[in-house]
Amino acid sequence: MRSLHRRDSAAHRGQQGAGRAHPRHQPPDALPPRRAQGGQSALGRWHFRGVPFGGTHVTQFSKILVPIDFSSHSAKALGLAIGLAKTFGGQIHLLHAYHLPPLVGMPDEIVIPPDFWTGVRDAAGRKLEKSAEKVKAAGLAVETHLVEYAPSDAIIETAKEIKADLIVMGTRGLTGLKHALLGSVAERTLRLAPCPVLTVKDEAAT
Which tens digits make up the pLDDT trace of 125-165? Predict the structure, then answer.
């Protein structure tokens, strides 16, 4: 299990592609993405903002990053990522980021005990490994990343670190300490991601 260290540097926006992106091999029911605007498919929504395709062809997705918060939305995203990895012969990287939001209005002398964070990390680690087992059961290679980091920053930095070819993520999820993939996280990822992003929504959960 790999961990992402804290970084002070901000993620930089990628250059917008100059030409149309043409994935050469797509799942049978996926529609071609629209130029630099994202495209709707039967699987989810493809986003190519900020990706320097420059008219080149995407031949495969060898490294697929799947941020998960253990909600039904991220579970559906993982299922789709498994299918894509089988199609392209790719490897899946599972990422879970946990981060405590500022406690507004709380006295400064209140300190969260270290055992609390240990419990949060251990519980998340167990769930992350269960998700990894699903990937292994599908006959695919998988690597897990459990990080204490703001979710959107963790997604962007991990994608850069592993040189991801694709990010598959849910658009809504759980709330509170679980740090769901809410609209603001998904939106920031779409703006700053160094690779294409496929967003997935569990319609049954809405």
Answer: 999 999 999 999 999 999 999 999 889 999 999 999 999 99
Of 141, 102, 98, 94, the residue nearest 123 (C-alpha): 98
Query: Which residues have C-beta within 8 Å of that of residue 157, sequence separation ≥ 6?
Result: 4, 7, 11, 149
Interacting residues of 188 by C-beta distance below 8 A, sequence separation 6+: 152, 156
Q: Where would I find the H helices in 89-198?
A: 114-137, 151-162, 183-192
| Range list of H helices, the chain | 72-88, 114-137, 151-162, 183-192
Q: Give Cα 189 distance to the centre of its chain.
A: 8
The answer, as to whether pTM is greater than 0.85, is no
Question: Domains, the chain, ranges and CATH?
Answer: 59-101+151-206 (3.40.50.620)
Q: If you count DSSP H runs as helices and E runs as strands, how many of each does the chain have, helices first?
A: 4, 7
* pLDDT, tens only, 40-73: 444 555 554 444 444 445 557 899 999 999 988 8
